[in-house]
Amino acid sequence: MQQNSILLLFLILAALATITFLYIYLSSKNVELVKQGMENPLKKRFWFLLILFVVLSIFASVTIPKSPYYLFADETPAKVVHVSAMQFAFIMSENAIDPKRPSGQAIEVPANGLVEFRVTSLDVNHGFAIYNPEERLITQTQAMPGYVNRLRYKFSEPGTYKIFCLEYCGMAHQGMRASFIVK
Ligand SMILES: [Cu+2]
Q: What's the predicted TM-score (pTM) here?
């Protein structure tokens, strides 16, 4: 119900914006000035927008497939790690999650193998950010209640990797951290 009214509001605003732009476009045609011999400014604008559109389309078609959403999309992961974020901890398990029974063992993942993290949250939105042994942020996703976000990565360097929450989630947010080992 609420979604429908938001969609309706969006459609009304989109229609208003279209009418406004159409009005500006039609009122700026200056037919009289063109008749008097002035160069039609709309032609220049048309070519500018066409070239801009072509350049941006080429740019987008090259860069979008390289976005992390498609990273290792057609490979089977060597290891799957289930992650449940909660105030104020990460529960990580090699089996599908049972939040009442965390494994307690440190998670180990293979170096150079494809690792898939299946990340969700048991309460509010959290961040799931992985830092390498030099404490540089290398990849991250959101932990959201009701959703499982897949994060795929290949860790080339063995060592202890840290996980921090990057989404402010409450009073003890800064203490929300975990780690795993790449071997
Ligand atoms: Cu947090």
A: 0.65
